[in-house]
């Protein structure tokens, strides 16, 4: 049974459910929470002397506990997941071009199993991972612009306008606000 008091899976964000599992070799029963998506699970030995509710409460508390350090790293992990999916899709795109060009065709006019695979890989990329990657890339672009403006000011270079660093910083602010290009 899925419990309304269960948080989503800490690994993939999927729904989780309670179940009782039996280990034939050990002759033990366990209260278990399992993610329905990635199959991550957490179990506790079912002590029949204790009430089933107490076991379930202990297990639920453990499942729902999230380490702040892990939560802080989650956006970067999600961005890395999206980057890995995109790298796989780009490899398929490259193979498509190589395959089609080898046959003497225009890669933009012909579809191949490689280009179909690239589209499928991109479709499988989790939306939260894609959003995390876009946010990370926007933050990196904004930071680069800020560093360029500071370098420009520190070097005292003069171009046609003295307000170039302010324009660079304004663009960095715009990128951060939009969260993308």
Features:
181 residues; mainly alpha; 2 domains; three-stranded antiparallel beta sheet; 3 strands
General description of the model:
- The mean pLDDT is 79.
- This protein folds into 2 domains: 49 residues; 109 residues, no CATH class.
- It has 5 helices and 3 strands, in the order βββααααα.
- Strands 1-2-3 form a 3-stranded antiparallel sheet, covered by helices on one side.
- β2 and β3 form a beta hairpin.
- It is mainly alpha-helical and 181 residues long.
Percentage beta strand: 5-15%
| Classification by helices and strands | mainly alpha
Number of beta-strand segments? 3
| Count of all domains | 2
CA(first)-CA(last) distance: 44 Å
User: Main beta sheet, described?
Assistant: 3 strands, antiparallel
**Low-pLDDT ranges:** none
Q: What level of helicity do the residues show? A: 55-70%
Q: Provide the spatial order of strands within the biggest beta sheet.
A: 1-2-3
Count the helices. How many?
A: 5
Written as H for each helix and E for each strand, in order along the chain, the element string is EEEHHHHH
How would you state the average pLDDT, rounded?
79
Shape: flat
**Rounded radius of gyration (Å):** 25 Å
Oligomer: single chain
């Amino acid at each position: 049974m899925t419990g309304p008091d269960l948080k989503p899976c800490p690994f993939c964000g999927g729904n989780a459910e309670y179940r009782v599992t039996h280990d034939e070799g050990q002759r033990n029963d366990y209260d278990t929470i399992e993610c329905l998506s990635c199959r991550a699970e957490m179990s506790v030995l079912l002590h029949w002397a204790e009430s089933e509710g107490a076991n379930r409460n202990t297990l639920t508390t453990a499942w729902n506990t999230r380490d702040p350090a892990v939560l802080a790293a989650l956006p970067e992990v999600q961005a890395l997941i999206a980057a890995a999916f995109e790298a796989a899709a780009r490899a398929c795109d490259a193979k498509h071009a190589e395959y089609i060009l080898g046959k003497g065709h225009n890669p933009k006019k012909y579809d191949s199993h490689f280009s179909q695979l690239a589209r499928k890989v991109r479709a499988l990329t989790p939306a939260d991972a894609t959003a995390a990657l876009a946010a990370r890339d926007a933050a990196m672009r904004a930071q680069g612009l800020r560093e360029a403006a500071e370098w420009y000011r520190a070097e005292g270079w003069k171009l046609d306008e003295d307000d170039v660093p302010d324009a660079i910083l304004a663009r960095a602010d715009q990128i951060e606000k939009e969260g993308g290009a």
